[in-house]
Amino acid sequence: MQIRKIFPSFALAILLILTACSTSAGGENQNSASYTATMQVLPDPPLVGDVLLYFTVLDAKGDPITGATVEVGADHTDMSGMGMHGPATDQGKGVYAITTNFSMTGNWKISVKVVKNSEEFTKDFNLVIR
Ligand SMILES: [Cu+2]
């Protein structure tokens, strides 16, 4: 399995699956934390079907943010009202992962919300599913 080669910890981690067709949470980005988040996907480029999304969250000094609550939303921006939402699980070293089943090709907006203590950080990513 490609996933195990790249990220052995994922074989042991509990990966929750985004639940389909819930309404997406609205709201603009309100960042009280000076975090950065990057997103990577497996497979890359992402295809219709199961896609592993993983996020690396760092603080302003570049140190990993561990133990945070990370919520992920996925909205099919080509359609109205098609979205998914669920929690990403902590993989350690500032990495949070979730498996998402993309049922349709096109443009998706991935929204990640990181909450730790009283700090909150949100970021959106564009993802094209082929
Ligand atoms: Cu759709």
Concise description?
This protein has one helix at residues 2-6, and strands spanning 19-20, 36-42, 49-58, 69-76, 83-92, 95-102, 106-116, 119-129.
Low-confidence stretches: 1-9, 20-27
Largest sheet: 8 strands, antiparallel
Find the CATH superfamily: Macroglobulin (MG2) domain
Small-molecule binders = copper (II) ion
Helices, by number, come to 1
Topology (elements, then pairings):
Elements: H1 2-6, E1 19-20, E2 36-42, E3 49-58, E4 69-76, E5 83-92, E6 95-102, E7 106-116, E8 119-129
The chain binds copper (II) ion.
Give a verbal description of the structure:
This protein is globular. The N terminus is likely disordered. The chain contains one helix and eight strands. Helix content is 4%, strand content 52%. A hairpin with a 2-residue loop joins strand 7 and strand 8. The chain has one domain: Macroglobulin (MG2) domain (Immunoglobulin-like, Sandwich), CATH 2.60.40.1930. Strands 1, 2, 3, 4, 5, 6, 7 and 8 form an eight-stranded antiparallel sheet that branches. The protein is mainly β and 130 residues long. The protein starts with a helix and ends with a strand. The structure holds copper (II) ion. The site of copper (II) ion (CU) has 4 residues, from loops.
Write a concise keyword list for the protein shown above.
8 strands, mainly beta, Immunoglobulin-like, globular, 8-stranded antiparallel beta sheet, 4% helix, disordered N terminus, 130 residues, binds copper (II) ion
